[in-house]
Amino acid sequence: MKRSMLLTLLVTLIALLAVPGFAQTMEYGFNATMDTYTPITGGLQLGTETTDDQRFVDPADLVGGTTLTGPGLPIGFDFMFNGATFDRLAVNANGWISLGQSALTPSVSMATTSAYTPIASTTVITPEVLTNRIAGMARDLQSQAGGGIRLETIGAAPNRVCVIQWENYKKFGTTGTGDQMNFQIRLHEGSNNVSIVYGDIVSNATNGNMQVGLRGPLVTDFNARAGDGAWNNTTAATANNQYVVLNDVNFPANGLTFTSHIPWQMLLRTLQISLFPQTRQP
To answer: In this model, does residue 277 exceed pLDDT 90?
Structure first.
């Protein structure tokens, strides 16, 4: 009897989820906590100490370039984001990533109105699922001596974590003199949570307007942070062009972690896709 009632409830919930349009990044929960920043040292090394504006869309070209689309880099597991499942990603040197699917050709796209404000982009990507992106500290950035980007999937199934790490980056040109930016975007297997973890951050007095957060296919589909004060006290952005200001007074403490956690509707959606793959929405 209990099993029958649970099955009925499950079927009812799955039926409700068949209504399209519920998947939006704005549904994600957010919390800011203090954790430990653990650098990665393995995986793929992307770019060089002179990297500036490169996109990384192909494992055959780890130096990067201006190409916007490609086969993508492996996440290492299926990652559920914004109602879709992804197994590829692309990296933009300017502090953000886009998500992709190996079943598509191309598998990833980094097309955007501006590479420095990816959450505010109005560029239309086809198919639109390739618009999904995550910004850790997006603006005009560049590498410098001792700088680099790494991609590594760590841990063991079913709790692996795909880590994309920027090490010793800076704001572009003389506006970034003295900067040292270390941060990671982490994709978590199983929970499908997104974490942005900040390491040692040194900023000069020049304000850097950093886009931080999530973006989906629509210009209204965003879940970003805004603020011009302490980084542990940001607020939810109300427009997709808002940002968090970085300077020598206001910068994230080592270990500050922004976590966007998948809402319960999407957890049920994950179960729906696993049990009934024919109900997957495009």
So the answer is: no
206 contacts 277 by C-beta, under 8 angstroms: no
DSSP SS3 for 25: helix
Query: b vs e for 181-202, b when ≥16 Cβ sit within 10 Å of the residue's Cβ?
Result: bbbbbbbbbebbbbbbbbbbbe
β-strand partners of 194: 187, 260
CA distances from 138 to 23, 186, 226, 242, 281 (A): 24, 15, 13, 11, 30
Amino acid at 106: P
Beta bridge partners of 198: 183
* Cβ–Cβ under 8 Å, residues 203 and 248: yes
Per residue in 179-218, pLDDT (tens digit) is 999 999 999 999 999 999 999 999 999 999 999 999 999 9
Q: Which is it for the CA torsion 246, 247, 248, 249, positive or negative? A: negative
The verdict on pTM exceeding 0.70 is yes
